[in-house]
Design a protein that fits this description.
- By secondary structure, the protein is of the alpha+beta class.
- Helix content is 66%, strand content 9%.
- It is globular and about 50 Å long.
């Protein structure tokens, strides 16, 4: 048994310890609260900085997109100012000057200049294959006065109306393209001699008109799009996205380049052969669509350089 004094001391000490503990807790709590406040402030600051950074990134992306669009528009304007939709028939040796500083292609260019006599340069605007195909089709039929081929293509043009409507397109939207294509095709073949206008002059005037030329291209694009839809089982395996989306983005849209699928569909619908000279650094390749078409029956030959087609004449 402890003396009373000792007990009081212990009680006082215990009370003091409790006070010290409470003060310690209060300090700890205050410190914790201060830390929490600091953390909250830091988090808020971080979120604000992150938001600012995201805002800057979005703004930078927006500025980048705007600059990209401006650049594309400027490039397009420069192309329109400096190159015709389709050039005069030029001697094939112009290719030598085009590639005079590119020694990798010197052998390939020589091979092309030995095989062909003339070239028509076509504007680099994403429509070059379609423009080449239509121009050469009109030119060949009219210059050769090929009545049989004229009647065959005329039927294909007429049949395209049902093909297009049966594959989900609104004819009221397509009708103007059809009418202009049909009228120009008939005029080119039937009326020129009586009017005293040469076929070549007429075609050069027609294809130098961007609006009229685009109407012709739109009609061909929708013929191909409808044909692809009707025969999707043959082509969709070659496309890595939903087929309808691909047709909308790559076939229907003006200024989008034609790749092998579009070319095959065009050849298959119109039953007109196309020969493509692929310009490569090592050895040129030649492809025919369709492969079994006799060379003598192919009158559309194009020179392919990366992303572009020009017309060749032998």
């Amino acid at each position: 048994m402890f003396p009373n004094g000792s007990t009081n001391l212990n009680n006082q000490q215990t009370f003091q310890d409790i006070q010290n503990f409470n003060q310690s807790n209060q300090f700890t709590n205050n410190l914790s609260n201060q830390n929490n406040n600091n953390n909250n402030n830091l988090s808020n600051n971080t979120n604000q900085e992150s938001a600012k950074a995201n805002g800057k990134e979005i703004n930078n992306q927006k500025i980048g997109n705007e600059l990209s669009i401006e650049y594309e528009n400027a490039l397009r304007q420069e192309i329109e100012l400096n190159s015709p939709l389709i050039s005069d028939q030029l001697p094939i040796i112009v290719l030598l000057s085009d590639y005079e500083n590119n020694f990798n292609y010197s052998k390939s260019i020589k091979e092309i200049t030995n095989k062909y006599k003339f070239i028509r340069k076509v504007r680099r605007d994403g429509n070059c294959f379609y423009r080449s195909f239509i121009y050469r089709l009109f030119e060949h039929i009219c210059m050769k006065n090929n009545k049989e081929l004229f009647e065959y293509i005329k039927k294909k043009i007429t049949d395209a109306k049902d093909l297009i409507q049966n594959n989900g397109y609104d004819w009221t939207f397509i009708q103007d393209f059809y009418n202009i294509f049909n009228n120009q095709f008939n005029t080119a073949f039937n009326s020129l001699q009586s009017k005293g206008v040469s076929v070549r002059d007429y075609l050069d005037t027609l294809f130098s008109d961007k609006e009229a030329g685009n109407y012709l291209i739109y009609f061909i694009r929708f013929c191909i799009a409808a044909y692809l839809k009707e025969n999707s089982f043959l082509y969709e395996v070659y496309v890595d996205m939903p087929f309808q989306n691909w047709i909308t983005n790559e076939v229907e849209a003006i200024d989008h380049e034609a790749d092998q699928i579009q070319i095959m569909a065009c050849v298959n619908y119109f039953d007109i052969g196309v020969r493509i000279e692929y310009l490569n650094p090592d050895k040129n390749e030649v492809m025919k669509f369709p492969e079994d078409k006799p060379d003598k029956d192919i009158f559309i030959t194009v020179l392919f350089t990366p992303g572009h087609y020009d017309i060749l004449y032998n």
